[in-house]
Write a structure and sequence with these properties.
single chain, 1111 residues, alpha+beta, Beta-galactosidase, Chain A, domain 5, eight-stranded mixed β-sheet, eight-stranded antiparallel β-sheet, 58 strands, 25% helix
Length: 1111
């Protein structure tokens, strides 16, 4: 790689063309036979068209067999340029160019077949401010004069000789791709533009190079790989078999002979892990450091030796993937051998050499070591979130920095994949993914000029694409994105991730939306029509991210002035309106990009639902209001999802409008969450509403009936099943967040019995629970002792058998769960239940009984029932026999029954406590002692009643047995103590294995004694962002004002491809050699300095003073 771009201080401008005047210049290009080497004429035509765009003058364009008259612009290796100077580049296949003046102000633009065309573009970009940002933003400024510096002296060789930008705006637009210096075959580069670089065969090649139909393993077993089980592969050849080698070589030569203009011949195993384990291949594998990549490279080397005599310029490219990804020892590739790396799992949020992600760090190590094995490396890299392309992906820095890093190691080919695609009926292309146009522009520049300033090209794009005023805010957004990913180094960004990447915090997402909204305001004030369009579309990913983030939260539901259900305080309703105004629908094609918004990965199939969602939140849905006497209940479709979010008596609210009154059919032990069924209104009157949800495997119907005394909820659930579903096992649960004034003064009663205070066998610091087995009672009531407000629950025709309440000291609401503890349904069966709620006011018969003391003193105690746990398995074919059951002895009303003594860990109760209560465990840190509250019934025999333990990531498992002495004499609940967990991890797996000593075991909940001296990290720390409404417009970027990006120096992991056992010795010798050389250099320096002091100043002045354009 060679870059030279210098201007001497004594330089002056040479005018090539002046508006309204005839230029002294003529464009000359080489005379060739008709149809041969048409690229010289193309380059000349691009030069002529460029000058016309600048000054309006059409400079004559002729071949070099014409007489030289006046001054010439020599395009390519004209006879005149050869006569006047020695051309630096003569290899037509090399992507390189030179630009300089010779003789009497003649301008030379010369290079390879593509390189000369690139030279024309470079000249126009540098001296006429042409810009090729996007297809609709190719900028050709007009001027009175087109001047070029007299001392221009540019020589550039592309750092990456294969350059492919796999993205819609570049790949699907032929001429624009050329102007971005893309040279891959599938981007439409014809001979007029210098041809293209392409590969014979694709990535996975053995299926084509040794077709199984022609060489079936049954007939040619020795040609196929021996698998570990002794069978022959039907996919992979034996790489030590001569017949297989001969067949693959013959098919390669046959295919290349059809068209030998390719640059590469690919050799790669099929997309699986099949490879040979025969004695010969195993011996080679051992020889090459126990790496199958060595066996593969040995095979490819042999192919390269046979191919080179006939096709000396082809690179044989081996796939380094799966079992061939790790570089081998004791072997190097031939000069005409390279590899192809495809790091699909890398962290795309940071440059590869700066990421802390283990997989990415391993890839970097492999790259460094492969660079010592082969002379040609091609990388296929991914740099967007393909699943959610129009959400924020904080990774703009990654593509440019990666290319600067890769250029240090024999990486001479690069394919960067962004979102790319087109849709049919109607035909439209995918556009507007997050920062894709910036990434494509940066990629195009860094693939050619990795040593130039990355920051300059970013600012250059922002300034031209968005306009100076908007660019200031987009620049701040990019800087904030960079700050974010470096602030959270352990949170990787995935190219197949969710809608919001791990590093992103809520306040960053809001800040990003703020910056983009300010950018839009700025563009509206000073931007051009296209810049306004670009900024409006650029804002969508920030808005979409906030939209998704807010939809994942719970918001107070209200009824607006138009009678629509709205989410109070949320932005996503405004956002949905704006996105619809700009993107419209999946068929809409905008006038500039000729594309449609890539709002989701699978736009044709998933896009309609996304747009329907935007429309729903933009327009809102009608509130369904039921009234009867003093009672009023309000529900609606999404965002209410058929829940009741307001239930009032005499205008006094009785439920929380965030949690809402809701019935769910849970498929897990956990009943504390919500399932947002997409309920649709079937029918409603002033006192009745019927909702229905009908997916493929079940039908759920809810009806609400209101009279003067109560609200009745009727539920009908029909299980339809599916091919792989099996029986339904779950927990029908009604959850009601009661608003009775506060949660600190509570009574309850069963049926028409007396009011009593809750019983708390375990008192917790923050959240307490109580409940009861209903024992056949058909009603229960909850009341607040201070406000005298309450609620009566009735269920005369249903199977409700328990209730359980949650009292959160930081909330005024009392969360009530009631329903059937466990339900087992077969396909076609139907479950029905009915529960009525009657608000109570001015309850007078409350006894004078104090509320139990819920103070835990200096201790921090947490206690949660098992119904907070999501990852416990229901009964399944005789194993994992854990069933929720009501229990008279449980103070929370419900327990988990464990059938003991089952084989194969069938009686093991396992869970991740921290994952289920993240508000206690946090992300990391903390110190807890876990105690399981259990009851051991029907005891018999001797031995260990149970085993307990936990598995903690990156730590050895801990487990221990038990003793019968730990079981109390009476059949009551007691605690089983676990070992203290320091630096608690949310993915620690706790387990309890009950033996037959306990005929039955009941597990009520888990108790956590927290050592508060251990700090807990609940979230990534937040960056405090300053909202600045007055950012100054960006100054027009000038390249020489930007410092050259300093590549990060790396220390390669010790690796020696020729001898894996001498690394330590070699390192020691290198250190010794460096020490000796350093001493010599220091001595020479002082001698030279002493001699220099004796030389005259005039001698030093002989070196020309040079002004360098910093790149």
């Amino acid at each position: 790689m060679f870059h030279l771009f210098v201007l001497f201080v004594s330089s002056r401008n040479i005018t090539i063309s002046k508006r309204g005047q005839t230029s002294k210049y003529t464009i000359y290009y080489p005379k060739t036979e008709r149809g041969q080497q048409p690229w010289w004429r193309t380059a000349a035509r691009e030069m002529q068209a460029g000058i016309k765009n600048i000054t309006g003058e059409v400079i004559p364009m002729i071949t070099d067999d014409n007489k030289l008259e006046g001054k010439g612009i020599f395009i390519g290796p004209t006879k005149y340029s050869k006569e006047m100077t020695t051309l630096r580049f003569t290899d037509l296949g090399l992507d390189a160019y030179e630009i300089r003046f010779v003789g009497d102000e003649h301008l030379i633009i010369n290079g390879g077949s593509r390189g000369t065309i690139y030279g024309v573009y470079e000249l126009l970009e540098q001296y006429a401010k042409f810009r090729f940002y996007t297809t609709w933003m190719e900028i050709y400024p007009s001027a009175e004069e087109f001047n070029v510096d007299s001392e221009i002296n540019i020589s550039d060789v592309a750092a990456f000789q294969l350059r492919q930008m796999w993205s819609t705006d570049t790949t699907l637009n032929f001429y624009h791709g050329i102007r971005k210096r893309s040279n891959a075959g599938d981007q439409g580069l014809g001979d007029d533009y210098g041809g293209f670089r392409w590969s014979t065969f694709g990535v996975h090649t053995f299926w084509a190079q040794m077709p199984i139909k022609e060489y079936p393993p049954e007939k040619y077993p020795n040609m196929w790989a021996v698998l570990p089980n002794g069978e022959r592969s039907r996919s992979a050849p034996c790489l030590s078999n001569q017949e297989a080698f001969d067949v693959i070589l013959a098919n390669i030569l046959k295919e290349v002979a059809k068209d030998n203009t390719s640059s590469f011949i690919e050799v790669g195993h099929n997309d699986d892990f099949d490879h040979c384990h025969c004695d010969d291949c195993n011996a080679k594998k051992a020889k090459y450091g126990d790496r199958f990549s060595g066996v593969m490279l040995d095979f490819v080397n042999r192919l390269a030796d046979q191919i080179k005599p006939k096709y000396p310029n082809h690179i044989i490219k081996m796939l380094a993937y799966y079992m061939t990804e790790d570089p081998p020892f004791n072997i190097v590739g031939r000069d005409n051998v390279g590899i192809k790396l495809c790091p699909l799992g890398n962290d795309i949020g940071r440059p590869v050499n700066e990421s802390k992600d283990p997989y990415t760090m391993k890839f970097t190590e492999k790259l460094v070591n492969w660079s010592k094995v082969v002379k040609h490396i091609q990388i296929y890299e991914y740099y967007t979130n393909f699943n959610y392309p129009m959400h924020i992906t904080p990774n703009h820095l990654m593509i440019g920095k990666n290319l600067q890093y890769y250029a240090q190691f024999h990486v001479d080919g690069f394919i960067g994949e962004d979102t790319m695609g087109w849709l049919k009926n109607p035909t439209r292309i995918i556009q507007h993914t997050h920062m894709t146009y910036l990434r494509q522009y940066i990629e195009s520049k860094m693939l050619f000029y990795p040593e130039r300033s990355l920051r300059y090209y970013e600012d250059d794009f922002l300034y031209g694409f968005y306009g100076a005023a908007a660019a200031a805010y987009v620049r701040r957004y990019l800087d904030a994105s960079t700050e974010l990913v470096y602030f959270r180094p352990d949170a990787m960004v995935n190219c197949l991730g969710g809608p919001i990447s791990r590093p992103q915090s809520d306040n960053f997402n809001y800040y990003a939306r703020y910056l983009w909204s300010e950018a839009v305001k700025a563009a509206m004030t000073t931007g051009t029509e296209k810049q306004i369009f670009n900024t409006l579309m650029g804002e969508i990913p920030a808005m979409n991210t906030v939209y998704t983030m807010e939809k994942g939260k719970s918001w107070p539901l209200i009824v607006d002035s138009k009678g629509r259900v709205r989410c109070k305080g949320a932005q996503f309703e405004e956002i949905a309106t704006k996105i619809l105004d700009r993107c419209h629908n999946i068929s809409y094609v905008d006038p500039y990009t000729k594309g449609t918004c890539a709002i989701i990965r699978f736009l044709d199939t998933e896009g309609p639902a996304v747009y329907a969602d935007y429309k729903l939140y933009s327009e809102g849905v009608p509130a369904i209001i039921l009234k009867s006497g003093k009672l009023k209940a309000i529900s609606g479709e999404e965002p209410a999802y058929g829940k009741v979010f307001s239930f009032t008596k005499n205008g006094e609210e009785y439920i929380d409008n965030v949690e809402c009154l809701d019935f769910c059919m849970f498929r897990t032990f956990k009943i504390t969450g919500h399932i947002n069924y997409n309920m649709k209104l079937i029918k409603n009157t002033d006192t009745y509403a019927h909702f229905k949800y009908d997916p493929s495997d079940y039908t759920l119907e809810k009806t609400y009936t209101l009279n003067d005394d109560k609200l009745t909820i009727n539920v009908k659930y029909r299980y339809k099943g599916c091919n792989t579903c099996g029986d339904f096992k779950g927990r029908p649960t009604l959850s009601v967040p009661l608003d009775l004034g506060d949660s600190k003064d509570v009574f309850y009663k069963l049926g028409d019995g007396p009011w009593v205070r809750p019983k708390f066998d375990v008192v917790a610091t923050f959240v307490n629970h109580f409940g009861h087995n209903l024992n056949g009672e058909k009603s229960f009531s909850i009341c607040n002792g201070r406000t005298r407000k309450g609620m009566r629950f009735e269920f005369t025709q249903s199977n409700v058998n328990y209730f359980s309440c949650c009292l959160n000291k930081s909330s005024k609401f009392i969360k009530v769960y009631t329903g059937q503890s466990y339900l087992h349904m077969r396909v076609g069966e139907t479950y029905e239940t009915s529960i009525s709620l009657s608000p109570l006011e001015n309850v007078l018969d409350l006894p004078q009984i104090d509320m139990p003391n819920l103070d835990t003193g200096d201790k921090t105690i947490h206690y949660y029932p098992m119904y907070y746990i999501n990852d416990i398995a229901f009964p399944n074919g005789g194993v994992n026999q854990h069933i929720p059951v009501v229990d008279d002895l449980s103070f929370v009303g419900i327990s988990s029954y464990v059938k003991t003594g089952l084989p194969d860990k069938g009686s093991m109760l396992s869970m991740c406590v921290g994952r289920n209560i993240p508000w206690v465990y946090g992300m990391h840190g903390g110190c807890f002692t876990l105690r399981m509250r259990v009851r051991c019934s029907e005891r018999s025999g001797d031995g260990y009643p149970w085993w307990i333990g936990y598995t903690k990531p990156n730590v050895s498992d801990w487990y221990t047995g038990s003793s019968k002495s730990q079981i109390p004499a009476e059949d009551n609940y007691f605690f089983i103590d676990y070992k203290q967990e320091q630096d608690a991890h949310p993915l620690t797996g706790m387990w309890l294995q009950a033996t037959a000593i306990c005929g039955s075991m009941y597990v009520e909940g888990f108790y956590l004694d927290q050592d508060t001296s251990w700090p807990i990290t609940f979230n990534y720390p937040y960056i405090n962002y300053t909202h600045n409404d007055n950012l100054k417009p960006m100054k027009e970027p000038v390249m020489k004002e930007y410092t050259t990006d300093q590549r990060t120096k790396i220390t390669p992991i010790p690796y020696e491809p020729n001898n894996s056992h001498k690394v330590g010795l070699i390192i020691g010798l290198c250190i010794l050699a460096i020490t000796i050389i350093s001493g010599i250099v220091v001595g020479v320096y002082f001698i030279h300095k002493k001699r220099s002091e004796n030389k005259s100043d005039t001698e030093n002045d002989r070196t020309p003073t040079m002004k360098s354009i910093i790149v």
